[in-house]
Amino acid sequence: MTVNDRQQPAGAAAPLRSRAWFGDGGKNGFITRHALRGMGRGGHNFDGRPVIGICNTYSELNPCNGHLQLIADAVKRGVLQAGGFPLEFPAMSLGEPIMRPTTMLYRNLAAMEIEEQIRANPMDAVVLLTGCDKTTPAALMGAASAGVPAIVFTGGPMLNGRFRGRHVGSGTDVWRMTEELRAGTITQDEFTEFESSLNRSAGHCMTMGTASTMACLTEALGMMVTGGSGLPAVDSRRGTLAEETGVRAVALAGSDLTPQRIMTRAAFENAIRVNAAIGGSTNAVLHLLALAGRLGVPLALDDFDRLGAELPLLIDLMPSGRFLMEEFAYAGGLPALINDLRDHLHHDTVTVTGRSLVDNCAGAEVHDREVIRPLDRPVQPAGNGTAVLRGNLAPGGAVVKQSAADPKLLSHTGPALVFDSLEEYLAVAEDPDLDVTADTVLVVRNTGPKGYPGMPEVGNVQLPKKLLDAGVRDMVRISDARMSGTAYGTCVLHVAPEAAVGGPLALVRTGDQVRLDVPARRLDVLVEDAELERRRADWQPRRPPAERGWSYLYDRHVTQADTGVDLDFLRGASDSTPPRQAF
Question: Among 334, 391, 428, 507, whose Cα sits 20 to 30 Å from the Cα of 253?
Fold first, then answer.
């Protein structure tokens, strides 16, 4: 059989892209083939079988993704079983616990790298291996823009943390224990023991943080095999699903089942409803908005409030509940939840399996009704998900995660205590004489996309020690930053436009009365418009954070939170036509 003789897969809608590289009988084909022969790849790999790229975000600097090499091996087994030719390649890994100032600064860079690698290489389909928070949205965004058939497989959550006989969750219990250490209710030795007990296996955060949220929403969007979002990283069944992912990638090769066809408006609506039911991270708002922008899908900030308010919180997981991802998986995981929600979801969406989301999950059973609640016995009633606020402090919008907030603070008016930077606040947070009470509204600004830069997860800033010592464990906090999906508290986030570009948050002064009215979806500073305009005349724009490199490019092109914090020139997609020849 010659390099041009092998037949296309049954049902293929278009010639395989890889034939533009491997099928050339002249100089260019020779160069491509002989280079891979130098790695021990035999000529049968070039006979027309689908080439499956395996994009691996493994890195020792990203412990959440540190096991993805084993996952890649399982995917390769599946590709080979199905008659494909797997080629693994690395992509930038975004490790939330380690990278500074924030992985969000680099999400768009990783997405751009993934897009260009897919387009520039002989891939007929691509498997995207992700895990930690921003690697999953970056992979989805890159694949959406590249237009090649793609399937995502996440690395899975860690096993539950165990501390002194109880389950503890990454992020959620970190914030809680850190505050108790500051308050003096636990010792440094206890804190160190807790630190060594929390992460007991490979995998990403096992709370319903951003990593778990984006894994669930990737499955809800139709970009992952059924059941792939919830199983623990070390569960052997995850290897089986990884093999299945490789097999499915071969079936996708050459087909028209691209990300653009899968991630439609209806698929996004399904994902938003699922996000409400799982108590998902506020970061999902940013990632889905950015992803929709890549696909040309009309999606607005207010859609999250409108669609999310239709469903109650059904998953009793930290930070909004009691359990962790391990219990969720064993209770039936996302397929069981989807089956419960089938009357509230679109049935006409298509997934990477070729079937609809609802069909994929038909018959999936719930095995623990304390973890996955029925619709008539929710953890919290409908309307308690992510709320979108507007007002003279947030004309472009802001968000608050109601399920993780103190209900008593969702309607609150108090005096502002304003800080122009995170560092300025942290310098006085331990001061016992700080002029702050439980009624104070803490404002920390210049923490947004341009202001920090990168919009870090600092929106749930630690409480003043003066309040901790008095027994206070929550207060209203307002910022143009994000917060971890594992975090909790009455934190108003993503204020747009941000202070660094002259948004109204830049005009608030200490002592101003600020009113938060979540039921009315309002966020206002009680200052006359004329006074705000006088203050605006005195406002000075900040200095750019960098004069070169990625931060320079990011600062000049990043959009605001209400449109997803993507780069303006990356919105939209290109086609998957092979680029011009290299030789």
Answer: 334
CB 294 within 8 A of CB 570: yes
Share of the chain above pLDDT 90, in %: 95
Close Cβ partners of 116 (under 8 Å, ≥ 6 residues apart): none
Q: Per-residue pLDDT for 5 more than 80?
A: no
Do 45 and 82 form a contact (C-beta atoms < 8 A)?
Answer: no
Confidence (pTM): 0.96
Q: Distance between CA atoms of 241 and 79, rounded to whole angstroms? A: 12
pLDDT band for position 13 (cuts 50, 70, 90): low
Nearest to 155, CA basis, from 82, 83, 221, 212? 212
Helix axes of 236-252 and 68-81: crossing angle, nearest 10 degrees: 50
- The whole-chain average pLDDT of the chain stands at 95
Of the candidates 206, 399, 405, which has an alpha carbon nearest to the alpha carbon of residue 317? 206
DSSP secondary structure code for residue 464 in this structure: P
- Rounded distance, CA 410 to CA 400, Å? 9
Per-residue pLDDT averaged across 327-348, rounded? 98
DSSP 8-class letter at 499 = G
Token look-up 């996302």 returns 334
Q: Are 446 and 426 within 8 A, CB to CB?
A: no
For residue 167, what are its two tokens? Answer: 């389950």
Strand ranges for 113-265 from DSSP E: 125-130, 150-154, 161-163, 166-168
Please state at what angle helix 333-340 crosses helix 210-221, rounded to 10 degrees: 60
Binning pLDDT at 50, 70 and 90, where does residue 9 land?
very low
- 191 token code pair: 């804190």
Q: Evaluate the omega torsion of the peptide bond into residue 101 and state whether it is cis, within 30 degrees of 0.
A: yes
Q: In degrees, to the nearest 5, what angle opens at C-alpha 111 toward C-alphas 328 and 33?
A: 105
Say if CB 254 and CB 14 are below 8 A apart: yes
Q: Residue 71 has what pLDDT?
A: 98
